[in-house]
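Entry 12.
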Amino acid sequence: MSQFLKTNYETEGPFGVPMKSAQATALEARLRELPTDEAFTLRRCSFERGVSELQPGERADVSWITEETPDRLGDVVLAAGMDDSHFQLNPIVTLNHAYDQPPVGRSLWRRRASDGPMRGVKAKTHYPSRPTGWTLSDWPPDLAFELVKAGLLRGKSIGFLPLKLRNPTADEIAKSPTLGQVRYLIEQWLLVEYACCYVPMQPNAVVETVSKSVPPAWAERLGLPVVPTVGFTSADAIASAARRLIASSVVNGITPALDRAWEKARGRV
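Predicted 3D structure (tokens):
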């Protein structure tokens, strides 16, 4: 991610996520302490349970941002293991993780919570009022808050880094047989980012590709480029093109650059 608002972020940190310089330095230090296994990389999860309490007078909502259910990789993120010290350094809430667009809110707090058998993390998001000196025609937090109130922006999406994980024990599986299908229990994790998103098509998706576009009508109101519709290409056609490219001599010259880009994307700087 090469484009981001310099008014809200200072540098492109590990995994290509824009952040403050202090955040990038601290995150790089944490990454050096972790194994190079693919399990210890940035993940994104979306949750459609979303808003649990609307507070119109405060222009805020309280929402679930995690829950202790298996994600698509078969892992469970334990609420008790949340470390939000990194996120607290710049607790900005974006719309669909779009760092090249103005943020829509600020996270006031993140807390472990339960509702009957369900456990997870709740967060309070404040959508600030338009400042007096704002000169553009639209104020993004107004759009986001109106969508939240209308029930059209219910999803929440987080980016997190696993710090400590393990397999469920035999005793745990005996007490809760569903854990037999779980790959890892993520006991400690670092909250890196948090965003509002439209109701996810696939709840609990891990390493999810989050669209950074908004509907054309809203994009025009915000003065943003309208993302064109991409035509459908079959998986077979893509695989065939990939095989031809790999077999060509072109790949040999770019392999070192690809290796460097892959390591950067994994946070190995």
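Annotation: The longest strand covers residues 184-197. The helical segments are 21-32, 85-88, 140-149, 170-175, 216-222, 235-247, 250-265.
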